[in-house]
Structures are given as C-alpha cells and as structure tokens.
Amino acid sequence: MMADARECPASVNCQARFHERWPALRDPHARALAWLLDAPDLMAADAPCWEGRIATLGPVSEEVAAWLRALEQDPQLNRQLHDHMARQPSARLGRYAEKLLGFYLQQRRQLVAANLQVRNDGATRETLGEFDFLVRRPHIDSGNGLEHWEFATKFYLLEQVSPQSDPSGELPPDAFVGPNLADSLGRKMRKIMQQQLMLSRHPAAAGVLPEPVVSAQALVKGWLFYREPLSSLPPAMGISADHCHGFWSDAAALRERYAGQSGQLHFLLLPRLEWLAPARADIGRTLGMDALQEALAARFNAEPAPVMLAVCRGPEEGEGNDVFEIERGFIVPDGWQQRAAEHVRHTVIRI
Organism's domain of life (predicted)? Predict the structure, then answer.
C-alpha cells in the first residue's frame, strides 16, 4: 500500500445514489443533465495542487431539483430541451455534455457566452483558443466580472506502472489513460491549467470579452476505471475521494467476474452518448452473458477499442420493463493492456 494513499471508495456507489435521487427521470437528456449537475466532481476543489482553480456546482438545490423533474413532466420544457439538443447535433460526448450544461446555464440566466473563440489579428486569423463558458453567478460572485469555465467530461482507465517506469513509487496522473490511448488524465489537466485557463490573459481576448474575467476554473466530471476492486490514490493527485468509478477487464475475465450471477443480471453495451448517467433502459436492449461475449467478439473484430458495459439489475415491482445499472466497466480487446502499459511507460519517461 502506498504511503498516504487514499482508497477508492467501494462503499460509495454512484449508480445507487443516482437512482435513489432521480427515480422518476426516464428522458435520456434529462438524466444526463441531472448526472452532470449532481454527480461528484472528478477533481477535488480543495486539493492544494489545483491552487483554487477547480470549479464546482455544489449541491443541487431543491429549486434546481424541481426544475430537473419538470424537464420530464412539463411537455413545453421537455420540448425546449430536445429542440436545444437537436440543433447542430454531434456524436462527440464532450460536445453533447457541453450542450446540456449550456441549456442549464441559459435556463438559470447565468450564461453570458459559450464556445467563444479568440483569434489573432494577423492575416491568417488563427484561432488561439476558445472559452467553453463565460458565466455570471451573482450568488457566488459580486457581479464585478465573469467566470471562465473550462468544462470537461472524461473517462480514464488506470494502468498501473512499474517501479522502473516511476522510481519515486508514486502513481503519476498519466497512468490514467483514455480508452483510445490518445489522452491521459495528467495530459488533460496540464493542458487545462497551463494553457486553456490562461486564455483571458492573452491580449487578443480583450477584443471579444464582453466584460473582464475575474476567475478561470476547470469544471471536470467523469468516471475512473480500475482493474482491481480497490486502488490506492495519492491525495496529491487531486482526485475527489467520492468520484464515480467502475472496473475494466477483458472479455474472459468478465465471464469469470460474474460466474454464477449472470442469470440474475442484464448486460447493456452503451453507445458513447449514453456514458454519462447510470443506465436505465428497456430490458429488450440487454444481453445475457453468452450473447454479450458474441457481441464483444464482433465489436472487437470490427474495431479493437474498449467498449462501455452497464451491468444492470432486473425490474422490480412498479418499474415496468426497465433495468437499472448497478455497476459499469470498460471491456478491452486482446492486446489493449499491453499497449496501454507501453503508452504509460513512455509518457512517464518523457515527463
């Protein structure tokens, strides 16, 4: 066990908490937005390493909770949400999450600008950066300027590094890698902190900002995935103790994991735009273990990339044909772990 380590909270189940908090929500956009507003932050706002530059939405008030429930129950408000999401649709999960948060900020009259680009004054008009959100929250700030939020929804898998890769014995943030291995937690947070949150200081930003920026912070939501049930996290990494988390494994280990239980469980392969909130779906969409193994083999044959799986319980009385996610994991193809380990070793060595 690493010195001063923090264990991932096995007792904290984001799925159970979400289903308990939002039992009436079935609309997929409303559920995803409720998760964005109510889920634990991925980064700990009070961690010294972030120097106060992590934004947090705080607890969902009863007023906001009632508004979220109305997204399901009020036809006019539900139509506004769906019309908003239908404009310039994107298959990118990050863009989908941005649109959801933008809708909330608009409705709360806190949004000043979204995706505001800053370009240089040269002939090329090169884009220097983009403000994800400029917001004004009078109940948080005195109103003497704008907050700049860089918003990210991230999903990373922990690939443990060897002592040879990291002689300090610490767990580097770059050991958390994205499923496509093109990103890591460390790389993403360095880019946000060292580049994106500095945008308002660039001289060219003054030409597009409607008011001065008084604070620049990162708002980060997401899930982390572990090969083992418990992993140790150094507090210095700045990850929230109650972050949402799941597992990752290959297909063979998945069958072992649920040996003797698969008859009581339902398995659901999640499309990318359904990765945010814990799944609630019609039982007809789910698979048994044998059918799941066949589906995974076909997916990996077509594209050797990790697949998000929701493990669900069956419907209970009064729940119709709906199944509910109880845990989730990335299922990785053969060879992925070796590629991930090599990626982490090279990244740690370069740093």
Answer: Bacteria
Distances, alpha carbon 334 to alpha carbons 175, 220, 287, 303, in Å:
19, 30, 21, 11
- Judge residue 53's burial from the number of C-beta atoms within 10 Å of its C-beta, 0-12 exposed, 13-18 middle, 19 or more buried: middle
- Interacting residues of 141 by C-beta distance below 8 A, sequence separation 6+: 147, 214, 215
- Six-digit token string for 190: 């360095």
Q: Which residues pair with 221 in a beta bridge?
A: 153
pTM, whole model, 2 decimals?
0.91
Contact 71, 77 (CB under 8 A): yes
> How many angstroms separate the CA atoms of 346 and 237, rounded?
20
**Encoding tokens for residue 197?**
């949150």
CB 278 within 8 Å of CB 35: yes
Give 3's strand partners: none
8 A C-beta contact, residue 335 and residue 294: no
Terminus-to-terminus CA distance in the chain, angstroms? 24
Whole-angstrom distance, CA of residue 344 vs CA of residue 181: 9
pLDDT digits (tens, 9 = 90+) for 201-210: 999 999 999 9
In tens, the pLDDT along 12-71 reads: 589 999 999 999 999 999 999 999 999 999 999 999 999 999 999 999 999 999 999 999
**Distance from C-alpha of 196 to C-alpha of 217, rounded to nearest angstrom:** 9
Q: Show me where the domains of the chain are located.
A: 6-246
Two tokens at 179? 């499923």
Strands (E), the chain: 6-7, 111-119, 127-135, 146-158, 176-177, 213-226, 232-233, 244-250, 265-269, 280-282, 307-313, 322-332
Side chain identity at residue 189, one-letter code: M
Task: Let me know: does 270 contact 309? Beta carbons within 8 Å.
Answer: yes
Q: What is the dihedral of CA 227, 231, 234, 240, to 10 degrees?
A: 90
Q: How far apart are CA 70 and CA 303, in angstroms?
A: 40
